[in-house]
Amino acid sequence: MLELKNIDTYYGNIQALRDVSITVGEGEIITLIGANGAGKSTTLMTICGVTPPRRGEVLFEGRVINGVAPNKIVQQGICQVPEGRLIFPDLTVQENLDMGAFLRSDKDGIGRDLEQVFDLFPILRERRRQLGGTLSGGEQQMLAISRALMARPKVLLLDEPSLGLAPLIIRQIFDIIKQINRESNTTIFLVEQNANQALKVAHRGYVMENGRITLEDACHKLLANDAVKKAYLGL
User: Fold this and answer.
1) What confidence tens digit (pLDDT) does each residue in 170-190 have?
2) How far apart are CA 155 and CA 166, in angstroms?
3) What is the pLDDT of residue 85?
């Protein structure tokens, strides 16, 4: 469904990604793990068209999307939950969710999807008239995921969803990620520093170091890999 082929991405003269190739199949949860600054978020920004690659191709459903405007990429079915959540703090929960559906015109479908996200995160139903900026960190992450789901994505990109959250909330967020994938067959590309959690929820994983993919395998094999355990799992 989604493929990166030999991607080089730069910030000015600084190369952030080097010959990155990743494949994401329909219905899969794929995770990209690595240290802070490895290039994980840049990979997502490259997919979304925010930092287009200087070399290589990004393909979605077999079509090259290099150079396509970010809003058009969302319309095609790719939506990102950014690092740090980046909800609209001065809008209510309901208004944030409405923004997620901004590019849609199917009112009945929007209404059904709204009920689905409220079923996923009942606390948001209770907080629907509350300003986003007054929510807890965990609630803001739930809102950010729900806002993305309101775009009805085929591929959901998640950038560090566990960042800054308490362990109990992290477990809840990862349970919801599995539920979204299982119940709606939404394809998920998960970027995460919490390698232990990410490898337990995903089907396949990639390891990134200094802008390069250094390892890829089924997640159960990566969890048993001595180098991965030493570098990312604290074992």
Assistant:
1) 999 999 999 999 998 999 999
2) 26
3) 84
Same structural domain, 26 and 126: no
pTM of the model: 0.92
Q: Domain of 221: which CATH number?
A: 3.40.50.300
Q: For the chain, where are the alpha helices, taking DSSP H only? A: 40-48, 70-76, 93-100, 107-120, 122-126, 137-149, 167-184, 195-201, 219-224, 226-232
According to the model, what pLDDT value does residue 103 have?
Answer: 82
Q: Which residues, in sequence order, are bridge partners of residue 205?
A: 31, 217
Query: CA–CA separation, 89 vs 162, rounded Å?
Result: 19
Same domain? For 118 and 177 the reply is: no
Structural tokens at position 160 = 């560090």
| Distant-in-sequence, close-in-space partners of 215: CB < 8 Å, separation ≥ 6 | 206, 207, 222, 225, 227, 228
Positions of the chain with pLDDT under 50: none
Domain that holds residue 112: 86-152
Handedness of CA 25, 198, 42, 183 (dihedral sign): positive
**Can you tell me which residue has the tokens 């396949």?**
204
Burial label, 11 (beta-carbon count in 10 A; 0-12, 13-18, 19+): exposed
**Which two tokens mark 86?**
């980046």
225 and 159, same structural domain?
yes
What is the total count of domains within the chain?
Answer: 2
